[in-house]
Amino acid sequence: MEQEKQTYQPRTLETQLPFSWKRLFFQWEWMLLLILVAVLLFGSYVSPYFLNYPSLRDGTMVFLDKAIIVFPMAMIMIMRDIDISVGSTVALSSVVMASLYTTAGLPMEVAIVACLVTGAVCGLINGLLIVKFKELSAVIVTLGTMILYRGIAYIILEDQAAGGFPEWFGFFGWGYVFGIPFLLIVFAALAIVFGILMHQTTFGRKVFAIGNNPTASRFSGVRVDRIKVIVFMLAGLLAAITAIFLTSRMGSTRPNIATMYELDIIAMAALGGVSTAGGKGRILGVVIAVFIIGYLQYGLGLINMPSQLFLIIVGALLILSVAIPKLGSMIKRK
Amino acid sequence: MLNEFVLELEGITKAFPGVKALDNMQFQLKKGEIHALMGENGAGKSTFIKIITGVHEPTEGDMYLFGEKISFKNPNDAEKMGIAAIYQHVTSYPDLSVTENIFMNHEIRHPTWKTLNWREMHKQARELLCELGSSIDPKAQMNTLSVAQQQIIEIAKAISTKAKIIIMDEPTAALTARESEELYRITEKLRDEGTSIIFISHRFEDMYRLASRVTVLRDSKNIGTWNVDEISNDKLIVAMVGREINQIFPDKKMSAGDTVLEVKSLSNLGDFEDISFSVKSGEILGMTGLVGAGRTEVCQAIFGITRFEKGEILLDGSPVKSRSPQEAMQNGIGYLAEDRLEQGLVVNWSIEKNITLANLSELSSYTWLHRAKEKEQAKTFGEKVQIKATSIFDTVHSLSGGNQQKVAVAKLLTKDLKVILLDEPTKGVDIGAKAAIYEIVRQLAEAGYAVLFVSSEMPEILGMSDRILVMKEGRIAAEFVNRGVTQEMILEAAMGEEPVQKKSG
Lengths: 334, 505
Hints:
The complex is a heterodimer. By secondary structure, chain A is mostly helical. Chain A has a single domain (52-323), classed as ABC transporter involved in vitamin B12 uptake, BtuC. Chain A has helices at residues 21-25, 28-46, 53-67, 70-78, 86-102, 108-132, 138-157, 170-174, 182-200, 202-212, 214-219, 224-250, 261-271, 283-302, 307-333; strands at residues 162-163, 176-177, 180-181, 252-253. In chain A, the strands form 2 sheets. Chain A has a two-stranded antiparallel ribbon with strand order 1-4. The longest helix of chain A has 27 residues, at 224-250. The radius of gyration of chain A is 23 Å and the shape is globular. Chain B is α/β, with parallel strands linked by helices. Chain B has helices at residues 45-52, 75-80, 98-102, 118-131, 147-160, 177-192, 204-210, 233-241, 295-302, 325-331, 340-344, 351-356, 371-384, 401-413, 431-446, 458-464, 487-495, and strands spanning 5-16, 19-30, 34-38, 60-65, 68-70, 83-86, 165-169, 196-200, 213-218, 221-227, 259-268, 272-280, 284-289, 310-315, 318-319, 333-336, 364-365, 368-369, 419-423, 450-454, 467-472, 475-481. In chain B, the strands form 5 sheets. In chain B, strands 6-7-8-3-9-10 form a 6-stranded mixed beta sheet, sandwiched between helices. Chain B has a 6-stranded mixed beta sheet with strand order 16-19-20-13-21-22, with helices on both faces. A 4-stranded antiparallel beta sheet of chain B has the order 2-1-4-5, with helices on one face. In chain B, a hairpin with a 3-residue loop joins strand 11 and strand 12 (272-280). Classes of the chains: A mainly alpha, B alpha/beta. Chain A binds chain B through residues 2, 6, 8, 10-17, 200-203, 205-206, 209, 212-213, 215-223, 279, and chain B through 246, 303, 305, 324-326, 328-329, 335, 337, 342-349, 351, 353, 357-358, 360-361, 363-364, 367-369, 375-376, 378-379, 382-383, 386-393, 411, 415. Chain A: GO terms for molecular function: transmembrane transporter activity. Chain A: It is found in: Cell membrane. Chain A: It is a multi-pass membrane protein. Chain A: One of its GO terms (cellular component) is plasma membrane.
């Protein structure tokens, strides 16, 4: 018999990473912060009314309503899907709310609840369609519902405006709490809630798992379909919240509100570092990207720049945001 | 005698930042020989191929083709010089036709119009395939073919480029015994026609059957080249692993306990029919058969991934229904998927996140994830299966095949399971890691799990199993108690001509 036995030295695995400056600074968020500073400097350069607290504070009201939807959109994109029906969902929820109040004469509180339910149902329908018809991509499904929801909004309101809401309803769009816009507080709260949801809960972990490898996730016991439906429903629900803020700020609604919102929202998420290939992204980056795009729009609005210019800049930023990390790794390889 | 060798490598070194992937490599390939190249994963085989095929340029050293010094700037250069490679994972265009795949990059054009000459290409494709003794329709779409057929197409493609040297990278890895036989025949035919072949494989059978010489790589170096009939199996393993492996298959120390999993006449039309078997606690039930015999389908039905039409699954005597993997694991059934990269692991995640993925609910309260608990669990189970890595934060992508498989096993261990279904757990894993996986499998059985061990490799089925099921065309063709069973008996059951007819009423 052979005497010498295989000597196994038990292997240990480290559970602590040594501190590394590179890891601390090699983050997309730093780049986004730089871009944000550049946008603020640009704003102060083109307009004397831009860079001061009241201006920056109230400027958020212009873009934070739609930015609310960016959180679930980031989750959807992390799961390799997309939802381009959110703009239409905003319109439909808003129109339902307005017509229940004006035409049906229901109390405003009930109309608001109906608005939230409408949004959630829209999202639920998206989610169910995507999960049940796997051969259809999310782009096609939500392209369909985008047209569908908008169409229903037109049937309900027939290209009319509806308004005349009670005075307290204006609080959503214009109200301040301790000198801070209510909308900004809601946005900050949602950012924290979604930040925790995505990065500190099992739900978020599973969302990332699905985005990285849906099959392996399913084989590991992740209920992929259920999570997808929930996230799409969240997108619908937050679209309805956007509808409330937007309708309140405008004082009335039409079936054509929130057109092209989906593009701005997708742009915010992508600039924020959400990988279009799925599986990657952080709420912090998305939040900074919201302010970059938002303040850019606000600054250009202050000096009455044509909105086409805004589109050009956002387009260029988007392409840059995709190209810069690539450039970095290309330089490293050289 | 310079002309004896079609390809010669003189002191080839390839250095990447921080590592030497190939160190002072000497290699000679004769005309019309099949030369086996063996070595563990990470030994430098892939770098070696990439240098010959022009994917990488060597840092140092010279390469001679037909006695002339050459250097390749890119893979096209190598292809033009008559070097072709066929990879384990076929790198074809799945949505295109056979003809399109064969003539990709060297299409035949009409002499005057310069348009694609489809008629000629289809004709030549058919002739090529005919020469290889295959009747595949050149107009068939690539993804309708089996892996074995796709490999034949790759070989046809290599021949159509008039390759003088063909490199085959683990071509038999995904093939059944019969398909391998077909590949051997074609390879030998090519050799007899004067083509030189470098044949890379983990399977010793391949080497003994085909090669006249064998070169072993270890730690980026050429350990030696031998004539195949002059080297023993043991000596080869020592050369490859660098140490002696006294025993590949661990001893069995315990006898089986009570029946845990019982499958009763499970049927799903077209996949499998009338499957009945049982596994006891502490027992390893081997399941083998040709690829496509329905083994994976049975596992996936038990694991709740796919549905079955008829039959019953009992755990500890009481029937269970698993409509999803999640329910199956709750019932106590775990499954190690055959394709660990696609189905088993999130490869660009850390070891930690992979290990805990199936068990997140235990590591959280009200969905809030406890990071410290997570780390602890990853460490505990990662060390239990002896993953070779520095920290739990290493990405799975950076690990070798064997260590990736250990991560997948560790993930299963985090769950409270009674039954573990292992679907080809050693596929694409080198011999050192195989022994480690066998050890783990035996430990699982000893810890009281009921283990179903699915494999196409006869030696490991015979070496590991307490009992053996042989599947054939969706049915169980034979069951053996593993005492005095031989490879021939299993092969006969797996391929035997008369089908086991059992009418289910």
